[in-house]
Amino acid sequence: MWQAQLQQWQQWQQIPASLTQLNWPQWLAIAGMSSAISSIVVLLVQGLKDRVTYRRERRDAALEVAISLEGYARVCRAMMHRADWARDELDRTGNREAVKSAMLPAFLFPEKIQWRRLGHRVVSDLRDFPARIHAGREDLGSFADYGDPVALCEEVSVECAKAARDALALARETRKKHGCVPWRPGAKDADLNRDLLTFISAAEEKRDARRNRQTMSVGPAIISEAAGADSRIALQ
Description:
Elements: H1 2-21, H2 24-93, H3 120-146, H4 149-177, H5 192-235
């Protein structure tokens, strides 16, 4: 019994000697290097997580913007149909009240959009869009007070088509620059952009033709009026 205790005591006495034989500076350096490597790995992993989170939030913000613009394009197309109905109703019944329902729809982005996640140039273009829509509504409002109701319905249709075209272009650019999936419209909206471009082109050709007719009709009147003035001066 006492021999086992003596042997255990001798082993405990040998531990301080083995500790003094260790190269402590080297062990401390290894431990410090391991700690530094662990800290770097933790920082890299955390930075990677933050980057992934930032990209996800950026895509979410861009997607929210694109969806609101695409929804506005659909609203504008519906207003184009309403303007056509108002014009037909005016021609059929002479009721001007139907024309009052035809107007370029207002537009505002959702308040929850995190603009700080998006690029500065993209935000500048996007924030300018509601202002342009507001200016268009003001112009149409002035035209509604003094212009021809039939012409107003035509102007509303054209301005709605242009606003929808611009909204789809902004949505497409926003999705592309921020890595969002492309817009996949349903069968009803599959040809929306092409239909808008076709309508705008036809409306502009119609407008130019009407202006040319007005110019041609005004020209002879001006000439005849000038000739009459010359004859009156000669008689005097």
